[in-house]
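Technical note accompanying the year-one report. For the benefit of new consortium partners, we illustrate the data format agreed upon in the data management plan: each record pairs a sequence with a structure-token string. No post-processing was applied to the example shown here.
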Amino acid sequence: MNQYLYVGLAVAADAAGAAALKSADGFRQWLPSLVALLAYGGAFYFLAQAVRTIPIGIANAIWSGLSIVLVALVGYLMHGQTLSRTAVAGMALVFAGTLLLNIGGPGQAR
């Protein structure tokens, strides 16, 4: 499997975990709590698979950067949270930084 697909799955699982965590109400709701724990476990599993061949710095930058953007969008769409212009600009900068890390070419030891 393409290692970047593993990173994408880690990002998706992280966003699912965050959405479920919000619904878990401080672990008072058992089903969303279980979903959050499983999703976060899946996120770490997929990230672990990705770093077998992708440098950890690159994989972590993709995972954390895209997760920030996706979780903010999930909060906006599913939980009615607001996004200011400043927040959107910050997410654009995070996305741009993640993109620059990836197109910058190799620079980390394997």
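Partners are asked to follow this layout when depositing records. The mean pLDDT is 89.
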